[in-house]
Amino acid sequence: MLDGDERILPELEALLRGTYVEYLERRGHHVPPWAWINLLAHGSEEALHQAARTRRRRFFNVDVWRHARGYLAGEVIAAAQRAGSLREIQTTVLIPLELEHLRAPPARRTRPGQWATWILTAIEHTNIPRRPGT
Questions:
Q1: How high is the pLDDT of residue 1?
Q2: Which of 17, 38, 86, 97 is the most buried (most CB within 10 A)?
Q3: Is 6 among the domain residues?
Q4: Does residue 80 carry a pLDDT above 70?
Q5: Cα(31)–Cα(67) distance, rounded to whole angstroms?
Q6: 125 CB-near residues (< 8 Å, 6+ apart)
Q7: Average pLDDT over residues 12-18
């Protein structure tokens, strides 16, 4: 049996890399709605591009949460290009949203569309300095 530190380290690494959903799925655990923002808040630009490509697949081959996350990944990339930095969007908007959603009491039925609207609204209404010419 692993001690507590050895069990928690892979979970923390997944959280900080933006792969928490995949970590939970590999272990057969339920993925709570808040976890779907993890990739957006911590993932690399390449990971976001890869997620955005999932929305181009036929819808019936992608679950709705993954499809919503893929859509938002594309929107995050676009916002980062306007702001000039993915890290700026992540630290200013997405990490605080992730923490807010994590601390909130679990909703009975958070749906992917509601979740996506919540995040998209936050991205659009946050005052992030725009790069000149955008």
A1: 41
A2: 38
A3: no
A4: yes
A5: 15
A6: none
A7: 95
Whether 104 is in a domain gets the answer: yes
pLDDT in tens, 29-79: 989 888 999 999 999 999 999 999 876 555 454 588 998 999 999 999 999
Give the tokens for residue 20: 């928490």
CB-CB contact of 14 with 22 (8 Å): yes
Amino acid sitting at position 125? H
Task: Answer whether residue 85 shows pLDDT above 60.
Answer: yes
Q: Are 41 and 14 in contact (CB under 8 A)?
A: no
Could you tell me if residue 52 is inside a domain? yes
Domain holding 67, by residue range, is: 30-125
Give pTM, 2 decimals.
0.81
Please write down the HEC assignment for all residues of the chain.
CCCHHHHHHHHHHHHHHCCHHHHHHHCCCCCCHHHHHHHHHHCCHHHHHHHHHHHHCCHHHCCHHHHHHHHHHHHHHHHHHHHCCHHHHHHHHHHHHHHHHHHCCCCCCCCHHHHHHHHHHHHHHCCCCCCCCC
How many domains in the chain? Answer: 1
Per-residue pLDDT band for 129 (boundaries 50, 70, 90) equals: low
